[in-house]
Amino acid sequence: MTNLSLLHHFLGIGVIQEANNIFIHQKKYAQILLEKFGLEGCKPVSTHLIANEKLKKDDGNEAVDSNLYRSFVGSLLYLTVTRPDLMFSGSLLSRFMQKPSKIHMGTVKRMLRYV
User: Fold this and answer.
1) Domain limits for position 74
2) Overall domain count for the chain
3) Is residue 3 part of a domain?
């Protein structure tokens, strides 16, 4: 077995090792997501979900591209590896993958701005 020194990256997850702790992050992956979905110039938000907003399966709004929505949500779910605070929101939004609307897409974009 060979010692290859300290671990810096593993499966897209950055690792910072110090004497008494280990910190993992997905900063590079989050930056790639913002660029991929055209959100790199938008303002960040302090919360990822609006408190009183109730998401419904059939909310009467125009449908959006379900493939794009799935890509958004899948990317957010991968971020939950290092960001457990996104788990509830990501799993909530994954319920609407069958027939997403503009409200669902707006909520996903808000979550990406939170990241």
Assistant:
1) 27-114
2) 1
3) no
Side-chain-side CA neighbours of residue 64 (13 Å): 19
Q: Which residues contact 73 (CB under 8 A, 6 or more apart)?
A: 90, 93, 94, 97, 108
Q: Can you tell me the distance from the alpha carbon of 72 to that of 37, in angstroms, rounded to the nearest whole number?
A: 8
Helix %, strand %, coil % of the chain (to 5): 45, 10, 45
**Averages of pLDDT over each 10 residues, the chain, 115 residues:** 78 88 90 87 80 81 89 89 86 89 87 79
Q: CA 83, CA 34: separation in Å to the nearest integer? A: 16
1 within some domain: no
Q: How much is the pTM?
A: 0.77
